[in-house]
């Protein structure tokens, strides 16, 4: 009986893969190569001797050396730069995520007169280029005495319209019956927000947190404009100063510093990528 079943399996025609599937997977592989190549190129040069980076930047390293990483920590105070960047990134991420979520909840789930007009007006402000607010914002920060302090970067970034829009679009997918049930049980709006909406909106909150952290960590112009003392510099400003002071034969130190600055973003994205995908899969446009 087993021989008959084995012959039947062997005689079954092989399943042909459609050409459309082959084309799709080929394009996906090519896209992955395009995305991963810069990161691999950066890692490769960070462990390559400086003379090879100058003469053979795209070749594989003939020897693996970590002198670039040791040179970075010897010549650059990475601990202080990371601490300053983390202070800014974490503060902006927590404040922006919480305040944007509160505004999104009010617009999505609390019926009040004019909420659609307010939401439309907020979306209209996204059409205005951010560069137009540069001088008024700087003048305001200067008059408040915040130039040279982290407040000048944290407070203006505490709320952004795009994050309110993203969270609002996710929260409208949460059934209104869930919110009404909480109100019938005597829960106030803050309790409903913290105990019902926040757990259900976790994917969208994680997405907003990732976007906030990445934007704050990669921000170069803001710290360059407001942080005028080296003890408050972020990793981006430190990397600029370090790049201009490293000779060409020690180019591996620049690549090593770039790798150290990039790794936190890569780790955070990979740890929260499932929440990131869930958020955009559930967003509605209504």
Question: What fraction strand?
Answer: under 5%
| Total individual domains | 1
CATH fold-level name = MetI-like fold
CATH architecture assignment name: Orthogonal Bundle
Question: What series of H and E elements makes up the topology?
Answer: HHHHHHHHHHHHHHH
Write the layout of secondary structure elements.
Elements: H1 2-11, H2 19-46, H3 50-55, H4 67-75, H5 78-109, H6 115-125, H7 134-144, H8 151-154, H9 161-171, H10 176-184, H11 189-200, H12 202-218, H13 221-226, H14 235-245, H15 251-282
Helix pairs in contact: 2-15, 4-15, 5-9, 5-12, 10-11, 12-15, 14-15
Report on the architecture of this protein.
The model has no long low-confidence stretch (mean pLDDT 83). The protein has one domain (77-282): MetI-like fold. The protein is an all-alpha fold and 286 residues long. The protein contains 15 helices and no strands. The chain is 73% helix and 0% strand.
């Amino acid at each position: 009986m087993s021989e008959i079943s084995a012959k039947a399996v062997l005689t079954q025609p092989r399943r042909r893969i459609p050409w459309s599937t082959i084309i799709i997977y080929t394009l996906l592989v090519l896209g992955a190569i395009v995305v991963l190549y810069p990161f691999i190129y950066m890692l490769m040069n960070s462990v390559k001797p400086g003379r090879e980076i100058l003469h053979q930047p795209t070749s594989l390293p003939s020897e693996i050396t970590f002198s670039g990483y040791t040179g970075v920590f010897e010549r650059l105070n990475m601990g202080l730069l990371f601490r300053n960047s983390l202070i800014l990134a974490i503060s902006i991420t927590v404040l922006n995520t919480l305040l944007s979520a509160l505004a999104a909840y009010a617009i999505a789930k609390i019926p009040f007169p004019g909420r659609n007009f307010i939401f439309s007006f907020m979306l209209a402000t996204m059409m205005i280029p951010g560069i137009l607010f540069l001088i008024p914002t700087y003048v305001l920060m200067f008059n408040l005495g915040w130039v040279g302090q982290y407040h000048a970067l944290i407070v203006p970034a505490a709320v952004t319209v795009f994050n309110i829009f993203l969270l609002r679009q996710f929260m409208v997918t949460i059934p209104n019956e869930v919110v009404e049930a909480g109100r019938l049980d005597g829960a106030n709006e803050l309790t409903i927000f913290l105990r019902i909406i926040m757990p259900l909106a976790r994917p969208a909150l994680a997405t907003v947190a990732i976007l906030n952290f990445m934007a704050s960590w990669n921000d170069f112009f803001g710290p360059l404009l407001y942080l005028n003392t080296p003890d408050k510099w972020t990793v981006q400003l430190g990397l600029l100063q370090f790049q201009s002071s490293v000779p060409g034969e020690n180019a591996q130190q620049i690549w090593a510093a770039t790798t150290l600055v990039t790794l936190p973003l890569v780790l955070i994205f990979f740890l929260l990528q499932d929440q990131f995908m869930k958020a955009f899969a559930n967003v509605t446009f209504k």
